[in-house]
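Chapter review. Work through the record for Porin before attempting the end-of-chapter questions.
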Amino acid sequence: MTKNQNWKRLAAAGIASLTVFGSSLAAQDELPSREEMWAIIQKQQEQINALLERVDTTETKLVETEQEIEVTAGKVETTASFVEGYVSSGAASGGSASAAERTHLGGYGELHYNFGKADSADFHRWVLFLDHAFNDDIRFVSEVELEHSIAGDGQPGEIELEQAYVEFDLNDTDTAKAGIFLVPVGILNETHEPATFYGVERNNVEKNIIPTTWWEGGVAYRHTNDSGWAFDAAAHTGLFAPTSGSKAFNIRSGRQKVGSAEASDGAITTRATYSGTPGLQVGFSAQYQTDIAQGTLAESIDATLVSAHADYQRGGFGLRALYARWDLGGAAPGINGADEQFGYYIEPSYRFATEAGDVGFFARYSVYDNYAGSASNTEDAFFDIGMNYWPIENVVFKWDVQFTDYANSAKDEEIINIGVGYHF
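Structure tokens for Porin:
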């Protein structure tokens, strides 16, 4: 760079400095006055106040919005609870699908052939179960039975409503029910599907003394515990026994089947069962009714039933035994000996599996007497021997021979019974 060029640069820098200095002086001349500054401040204050007012308004709206959100959340929760309950009750989508899942059908039936002094064939029982669970804790149970195939005037059979009750789970161990139910006594009265017992016909003791099938109307309570004990208590309609004729004070003839039943005098039934040992069940029942004549006599005919049973299964070996006894008060039952009525049976059996299904053999000795208080011999005894064949668990073919020993020996006979039964 030449000396002349340096001078030119210094001159240009000096001119630029003078220009900046001059502009600064000009800017000082343009500053607002005090009044103008005051006006500017007031205007800015107004803007600040407006902003603050908008902030307050926004905060108020925010609080209101939060409150609305809380209300909406509550409504959503309420709606969700309603929908959940609606669905669980089976009412969703018209209720059809869920209600169908909670409704169950079942049943059993049995055909008998009896060859003795008189030969007969009888579709003895056709039974339909209809159950419905309203929810996990409340359910309806029913059982309708057609006996002897044909019902109506002059026909041998009848249609019976044997169970129709509503049951409530009170907790994990306690239930209660109200309606028509099977009386908790004996072995067969509550469990009598054909494939669950030996013999074409039900044994005479549980038929004439218990008397199976026996149902009443009322309320019942059941408690179970982990030790294997269960306790039942029921208050229900009672027997209405005939007080004259050949069936005077006959227990089985006293069943009213809850059909326009006389309810002047009810009964109480209690039962304790133990099933804490695998394969074993024992049970004890007691019932008391203050008057099985239902006030038709000048005296009350109180009746007390006690029964005990055992049902034992170990491997293929089985053993069933039962004892039951009635004691009737008052003078009238003692006239024909009906003040004491009892029965018992013992039934050993053996069951084994084959490639075509299970086969079981049994023998049974049974005795019952509806007039045990009589001085005469009124005791009837029976010896049964036979077999069951189960092609599957729920279907059974039966065969047995019964040798009778009636108090009236003229009635004695040997009866061959053949039957088929099922349940589902």
